[in-house]
Design a protein that fits this description.
Belongs to the universal ribosomal protein uL3 family. With 206 residues, the protein is mainly β. It has helices at 58-64, 115-119; strands spanning 3-15, 21-29, 32-40, 43-50, 72-77, 89-90, 100-106, 111-113, 156-158, 162-174, 179-183, 193-199. The strands form three sheets. The protein has a six-stranded antiparallel barrel. The protein has a four-stranded antiparallel beta sheet with strand order 5-4-3-6, with no helix packed on it. It has a two-stranded antiparallel sheet with strand order 8-9.
């Protein structure tokens, strides 16, 4: 089963045999514990927990059957032909160098930002009568409907959203320390919990 929970450590670089430098992100992956296997609409889903958590609500203690909780819990779709049961341990043994994975995480929160940073607006000219309006959004259209249409790009909270980065290559696998080196950057700050799911990649990459 090529699906596991990890924790973002840091970014570094790896030198390949041909001398090229590859920027990688180090991810502490597993070991994860299978909490429950669910069946819904002819699909099997597996609930996986990772890490430890000191303070846990009573319903979670009863559901998980343990006093200390999991730091992060998520659900994966179980592929056909793969059988797991509650209590099994998932490690990085199924991942090998060169595999492609999809990484799901939460992006860094940027707070309240304007349209230039949030949506990439170019801003107004710096001359010709534009005073104190360099980074303003400008007109949002006619006001005949007496309201603002949904989806209009404006200033607001930026970041803190679920982001999926697809088809990242596994550069190195350290099975001893349960650390994966994934090519490129992944969403989230250091210490953020992420989901890693194996993929076959796109047609153009084959």
């Amino acid at each position: 089963m090529k699906a596991i929970i990890g924790k973002k450590l840091e970014m570094t670089q790896v030198f390949r045999e041909d001398g090229t430098v590859v920027p990688v992100t180090l991810i502490q992956t597993g070991p994860c514990t299978v909490i429950e296997v669910r069946e819904h609409e002819a699909k099997k889903k597996v609930v996986v927990g990772f890490g430890t958590k000191k303070h846990v609500a009573k319903p979670q203690k009863v559901a998980w059957g343990k006093e200390d909780g999991y730091a992060f819990v998520c659900e994966f779709i179980l592929p056909e032909g793969v059988e797991v049961k509650a209590g099994d341990t998932i490690t990085i043994e199924d991942f090998i160098q060169g595999d492609l994975i999809n990484v799901i995480g939460q992006s860094k929160g940027k707070g309240f930002q304007g349209v230039v940073k949030r949506h990439g607006f170019h801003g107004s000219p710096k001359t010709h009568g534009h005073k104190d309006q360099l980074r303003m959004p400008g007109s949002i259209g006619s006001g005949g409907v007496q309201r603002v249409f949904k989806g209009v790009r404006m200033a607001g909270r930026m970041g803190g959203d679920q982001v999926t980065v697809k088809n990242l290559e596994i550069v190195e696998v350290n099975a001893k320390d349960n650390v994966l080196a994934v090519k490129g950057a992944i969403p989230g700050a250091r210490g953020a919990y992420i989901q890693l799911i194996g993929t076959q990649g796109n047609v153009w990459q084959k």
